[in-house]
Design brief:
Number of helices: 5
Number of strands: 5
Structural class: alpha/beta
Largest sheet: 5 strands, parallel
Length: 147
């Protein structure tokens, strides 16, 4: 399976970048992870840049949004396992400080809420990367998840 993360952001603090990178390295080989940063402008220009990064077909688009559905870690791992069985590529989108353009949200197959709390952009990316790794460890019966 291929997983792509497209996020709108200015440069994140190096410590958070390093933490994200650490989690990504743990599942990168098997899940072919790629992260792409889109520099913030206005929502419509960001949407245009995001559309240019999307494949022409055969992908499942998940936009992070405060109004989306939330999961606990076990539910999220089952969600990703199901997608792994039916999709060749999963793309996660994290909008900038003003969120994603409505046109991109409408194009998404699923809206995901990471937390009831409002998270800074870089921290939301870190939480997502950690949860993807946690799901990977649950799916592959690795000892990371201990709940």
């Amino acid at each position: 399976m291929k997983i792509k993360l497209i996020y709108v952001a200015k440069k994140a603090p190096l410590a958070l970048e390093n933490l994200c990178h650490d989690y990504i390295l743990r599942f990168q080989k098997e899940w072919h992870f790629q992260a792409i940063c889109v520099r913030p402008t206005d929502k419509e220009n960001e949407a245009k840049k995001i559309r240019e990064l999307l494949p022409k077909k055969n992908f499942y688009l998940i936009a992070l949004d405060e109004r989306g559905q939330s999961f606990d870690s076990l539910q999220f791992s089952k969600f990703l396992k199901n997608l792994e069985e039916h999709q060749s590529q999963i793309i996660f989108l994290i909008g900038g400080s003003d969120g994603l353009a409505p046109s991109i949200q409408q194009q998404s197959h699923f809206l995901l809420r990471l937390s009831d709390l409002t998270l800074p952009h870089a921290l939301a990316r870190l939480v997502l990367c950690e949860q993807i790794y946690r799901a990977y460890s649950l799916i592959n019966h690795l000892p990371y998840h201990r709940a």
